[in-house]
Amino acid sequence: MDNMYTVYTAVKHFHLMMIGLSVMLFIARFGMKLKGSALLQKKWLRILPHAVDTLLLLSGISLSIIISQYPFVDGWLTEKLVAVIAYILLAALAMKANRGTMFRIFAFVGALGWLVFAAKLAVLKRVVFF
Questions:
Q1: How far from each other are the two terminal CA atoms of the chain, in whole angstroms?
Q2: What is the pLDDT of residue 1?
Q3: Given this model, what pLDDT does residue 82 score?
Q4: Which of 10, 23, 108, 124 is positioned for an S-S bond with 94, CB 3.0–4.6 A?
């Protein structure tokens, strides 16, 4: 049992670190996008967010397996999955949509709102919608 707790703790901390890195990259890249920075064209800055998000997804799946709670079985995790998908879609709109600056800002704020909701679900594990 002690070994499983150690694995859980390590994976959880890695997951939290990837969340922090992913959010920081999103905010920084969004700021660069608004300013029209040439840094966004750097290969490493185009690849790094995808690598971080892949590790984030894999650590989330690992945590789900370790705690034996799964989307579409446990309501809070289903809602968290929906929140993460909404975050991804709005973040993509904020970064890639060929719309005006105001549209991008609304998408950015909306993405962060869904992220806060996902964090609330992760901490409280209480169902809100389903």
A1: 32
A2: 59
A3: 95
A4: 108
Number of helices (H) and strands (E) in the chain: give both, helices first: 4, 0
Which of these, 40, 55, 24, 23, lies nearest to 96 by C-alpha position?
40
Q: Residue 76 corresponds to which tokens in the numbers above?
A: 């809070």
C-alpha span between 14 and 59 (Å, rounded): 7
Across 5-28, b (16+ Cβ under 10 Å) vs e yields eeeeeebbebbeebbebbbeebee
> Amino acid letter at 113?
G
For residue 59 the two structure tokens come to 């650590």
* CA distances (Å), origin 24, targets 5, 53, 98, 107, 108: 28, 12, 23, 16, 13
- Residue 22 contacts residue 88 (beta carbons within 8 Å): no
